[in-house]
Queue: 2 jobs
Job 1
Amino acid sequence: MLDSWTQALVFLLLSFAVPIAMLVVGMVLRVRSRRKTSPIKHEIYECGEEPDGPAWIRFHPRYYVVALVFVLFDVEAAFLFPWALGIRDNGWLAIADMTLFLGILVIGWAYAVRKGAIQWQ
Amino acid sequence: MTWTDLAPLGVELILLAGALSLLIVDLILPPGDKRILGIGTLGVFLAGLLATWTLPLDGLALGGAYEGDAMGVFLKRVFLLSGALAVLAVQGHGPKAWPRRQGEYHQLILYSVLGMSLLSGVRDLILLAVAFELMGVPLYALAAWQKRDAGAAEGALKLYLTGAVSSAATLYGFSVLYGLSGSTRIADVAAAVSAHPSPLLALGATVAVAGMGFKLGVVPFHMWVPDTYEGSPTPFIAFLSVGPKAAGAAALVQLLLPGHGALLGTVMELFLVLSAASLVLATLMALPQSNVKRLLAFSGIGHMGILLMAIATGTVDGLASLLFYLLGYLFTNAGAFVVVHAIREDGGDDSIDSFNGLVHRSWFLSGAMLLFLLSLAGVPFVVGFWAKLFVFMAAWQAGFEWLVILGALVSVLSLFYYLRVAKAMFMGTTERRDEVPMHWSVRLAVSICLIAITGMGLYPNPFVAVAEAAAKAFLG
Amino acid sequence: MILDNPYLHALIVGLPLLAVALTVAGFGVFYERRFAAWIQLRRGPVWVGPQGIFQIVADALKMFQKEDLVPASADQAIFKLASWFPMFLALSLLAVVPMGAVEAEDGSWTAAWAVSSLDVGILWPLALGGLMVFPLWAAGWSSNNKYSLLSGMRMVAQGISYEIPMVLTAMVPVILAGSLSLDDIVTYQMNHGWFAVWPPGPGLVAFVIFFLTSLAEADRVPFDIPEAESEIVGGITIEYSGIRMGLFVLTEYAHTFVAAALTATLFLGGPHMPFSVGPAWMGVVWLLGKTLFLFFVIYWIRWTWLRYRADQLMDLAWRWLVPVSLGLVMLSAVWVQLMEGK
């Protein structure tokens, strides 16, 4: 049990090392300019034009609505996992319970769809 | 667990099923006139009320986290009535003012009442927190209902921020209580407090009570109240100023009183200070107000002081007086706000000046408003008098003489600002002589409140008897 | 046995696994170009080495050598952090995939040779994969470029929208096998049939939806609106240069490979052989074969399909995939009750 977590963490470190190693190799191999670099090199690329103001601006609220609906369903999925493991032991009552729970959720989903919360056009 | 364990939650199930079916109806109906939703919501509330008499609601549910008893039934009736009045009064206004959001208004009120209803019998800290949030979250959205209005946005934001902070405080307090007592059951917590009193437990209880104080809007947690009242639709305020306050009081009662008031003892000083501060400051701040809604808001803060006084007694008499007070306050305050709503619909702007000469335009509204104001001030022959009297008597017996004297003085002083509105209505002048137009729903709501406050004012005995029975059932 | 030491086990199983994943990802970049050329009746890169197979080496050298430019007005720290984080996340998902199949005396099969046999198995890739939106959005935001920001926002919206049906369809194998552990899920499939085939219907639909949402999570066509190069100039990678840019490209292929491997594990029986021949290590070959087949299908879709519009993407996810996957969860629960319930 603890062993499997150790293994997983070691693998996590290994996969962590891969991009780091690539960055290090890049640091060694890459070309550096000898002269002082021009500030134009460090400009933002906007298809060749000079950048017009910063990009950190206010955004369309539809993304926010999607995030809200996502949180709702993600929490619901978190509830589903323990239930999914207990189906064999809890029998039809488990299915009836979850049908009720999901039924309420589906009504909420229908509400979001019908009121255009996720309509992007 | 089986399904029959849910029997004590009959009213809640009716509310939930009704809310969900109305949501489906709202989705199926084409956009446009959706009056049917308001009527359906009223039907759900009436069905819930009927169920409080017909269904067997006593007993444990949710594995012991909820217990139905006579006090719960009494409170449920108060909550259902406050929801029903708020929905009734908006029937004329809603379809005209916000035709696309009728469904949501009724839904949110239903869910909020569902949360309150669960609060009426909590025996567990977790259910208490969850039900409190279920009650509170719809209120944030409802407070921001007039979303294009800067004042409404400000009031709603204040309500939301204080609400979020107070929820956090309440939960921190609960976690301290749980950590020190090892149980989330309120009875166990109370037992642990009496067995091993510790300053940390007192700290947990204090933080939890302070969090609930935010929701109640007692001084010094009252900043949101006037702004929210001013910016929100008035029928919703008729609900917000009554239902959630009653539910907050109910939550405090169920958290603090079990186990012979063990937890109450740890926060007694805080309670008395908050009560006195609310009584005095609210009255002083209400005096200069020129807006009726703000005036009623500060008056409501003062009334919270009296509620706290009733809870602080911790006796059967005190609890019975609290329950009776809630019932009387429900009709009085809701009625007053519905009258304000009617004046607003007529083109007024909630200022006292817009009440000028109302008697020449509608003797019904001006007479009703006068009675509501007298009841708020606590003048005999309307329910407010008995309600205050019972609370003061119970508090006197419990030994809070100074607080009672303070309350009585403040009540006299409050008569002054209530009568400013009355003076405008009866002695002010106006050019207009046209009858104030009233939707049938507003007339019905005002009439119900009027009958209730005069009926209870003239013959309070049966209601007091029910409240006493309920208090005895809870305190045993 | 030497593999009893968890550190050695993770190194011995993990290093070759990472090597294979990176090789496939790198080679995939080249192979995709040849494949696209083949579909479009042109030749593609054929000059570096026989049939151009050393093209990837040339590309890599070029990437390593380029100057590391960071825009002056970007949020420097986040900009740099975001460049290597996605690769780390994409590779780490592989930790729980079992790669071997062991046959017992009585003919029953057991899954083996995962880097880690976590008992919460499936939650590992779902949780770490769910983190993927953070670095991608951070990259889009910190660049201080309008196209990048648009791309980052689209990535988050798409990522979280398709995560819901992905999690829900991943629950179908969990319900059917009665365990979160990928070892148990694969073992169950070995003895009862692949989930894409059995139970008939729900399994296949869940397989298709999971595969589609994996495409969306990896931002592959037809779900590549976040980096639509004809519209927002390549999205979050605009301001990146040199090896940081290379990391993003490689990550996309690595993520695709990992998504294919997970799909093969959850629904196609992982290392299971449909007929029992060969030694246990043949399981690895089978798993790689299935993964590469799915990898190929992803290319195939990419070069034959059109890109979805942003609103069509949202519509597909929320209006169709979410309710269908909820239905699949309930259907498989009922199936389990009917077959094995008490």
Job 2
Amino acid sequence: MPSLLSAPGAPHSPLRTSRLLHERVRRFAELATDPPLVRPADADDFDTLALDIAHFQATECPGYARLLDGAEQLAPGELDRLPAVPAEAFRLARVAAHPSDLDSYVFQSSGTTADQSARHAVRDIGTYETLALCLGRQTLFRHLDRAVVVALAPPPGPKITSSLTFMMALYMREFDGRALTASPSGAPFSPFAFERWLFTSGQPDPTALERAARVARARHEPLVLLSTSFALASLLEGLDEEELDLPKGSLVMLTGGFKGRKTELDESALRRAAARTFRIPAAAILAEYGMTELTSQLYEAWSGPSRDLPARDASALARRPTWWPEGGEPGRYHCPPWLRVSVVDPVTHARLPDGQVGVARFIDLGNVDSALCVVTEDLARTTEAGLELLGRRPGAEARGCSLPFEGLLRGPGRTLW
Amino acid sequence: MNDPRLERLLALREAAKRIASPDDAAGRRARLELLASTGLSAEGIELVLGECLELTAGRAALAQLLRRAPQARRAHVLLSANVFSAAYRAIVLALLQSEDVHVRASRREPVLPTLLAELSAGAFTLEDTLSPEPGDHLWVYGTKETLDSVRGSLPSGVHFHGHGPGMGVAVVVEPDRMQDVELDQAADGLALDTIAFDQRGCLSPRVVLVQGSDEFAADFTSRLARALSAWERAVPRGRLDEAEAADARRYEDTMIYVGGALRAGRGLVAIDPVAERALVPPVGRYLHVTRTADPLARLVDWADRITCVGMWGAPLLAGLCETKLGPRRYVPLGQMQKPPLDGPVDLRTGFAAEIT
């Protein structure tokens, strides 16, 4: 047993412990999102819950136990010293506290330059759903009761293997939930419906987007377009400055960069082009940041003055959570209460002060069964306006004739687990 | 033979000998300045000056090389950093070609070329900027980006010798019966190959292919870690720059999580739990051990990156590699950083040039 963390009480079976931790994380998020007038006495605080999850992972994941070996015991308030699992580990090993036969999903990264994509095994998808919806309601869908939701992404196969695709399908179900027709009553909803996924045969389908916009107009609802930066750039390029009007109040969720893609486009130029093409304000484009290795996401805050719709009732207004910023800047990201990010020195992993560039280190309560604390190679800096992401840290540039530290060499037999 | 190029080559060799000698004022100055510029420890610098400068080639060997090298009116050399002793061979190659040699040192590693220029009585000219003209030969050492950038900036008709990055791979094959002493010697030799230049050279071993049982692979990995730890005491690792240190931290944490990592001095040896898979680990005395059923196939897979293969327990492998991979340095463990002065270190391109 690693000495880093104190045991959280009587021993349970790993599965039971995991279930209890998942319940606590979901409750933590729900209480944060929809706070009761009186906070329950047994409500968790972030640090205690994080330490309990870390203890669970140290017990059930030999890899994490090795990382903790020799580390000092931590108390709440000392999470900056919690050893982090490099995101790279998700490419090279199974990062999970449970056996693979309990996987409900295995999310994989795509579009990376390495031969082997990262894989994140998920046992309890309910926690992913709860966290994504709690955050979605505070961010992208903060002002919407209902909308037509479509994705500029390839249609998922029978088993979703991308966390982004899963989130897109979840948003479709939760914030739309109707067939994509002008009069949907009676028609069954399916997140797998082909017409909702507007990137087919490797190409964006502007005709399908026009159709979705017509449906939204007929319903007098806005349209929410979920898209990767690459797909959106591809769509705009295909439209060649031709306008494609979206209904009033429509929104675009933008995510991901151009990892592994040949096209490079400045993101602010992409936003301007999208706003012009869809005839929406630039402020109606909101960026999300997620990664396969995390369960939780980050979002920008809406720019400009508060976009909050009038609260439905005074009680709801009083209970509105205050943790999400009322206004923000493009390119500055914020975490929900169940996710913490710090910018750390890539060598010592010591937290850096605001304004200094380091790598992003996450403590994600959603990662109950994988790695609570993940350090990435993404350069970032924290500012008063939020987290600024600056791209991937370049490795040590070979000073001449040695090869740089790099990813996997090709070879057969690369089955990991 | 009264070839003025040979006289210049001999003058250069004498300069290098003085630099290599700890008793010569030039040698003492070199050690001081290299300590500041290279990041290597004092012992690491001593190791390179004593073991890796190719000073044994005599007049006859140099004369033979003169006949092999393509001749040029003028030759230029753009040096890289990393392996400070490589400047000597690079200048030798240019002097083989021409009486008129112009060298631009790396800003990060100017010590050896500067001293060689001072001590060799004008064997070559040190320049801030190179201006190759059509018909000239230009030797460029560096990253792929550097090669591409330089190549793209040249006038047409320049003979461009581009030498890009590469790595060494060690191959160890399980013997029929365990031979403790020999295995320890092999591990020691590989450790020596690794510590030279703190692994920043294009011949430096980065990946170790082990063919044999899992027990043998684990055993050899342990021997290797012990050997590297022992060498750490004799020749401590120098400092890593910030980016190197960050790569090192990432690799260490990753492999500790993945499993199979053993501390080895200030570096690490990691045996990959998945056979046939390898990472190129960071520089700074890190070795990635890969179990394989077919080392030749893996070498062929990675052939474009490999400059040198160190071998133990595979007497037929060198011949097979020569056929399948083409010209590379195929040597016993312990000899990977000691290529004879027989032409360019990197035999992938050798003396060949492309004409821009």
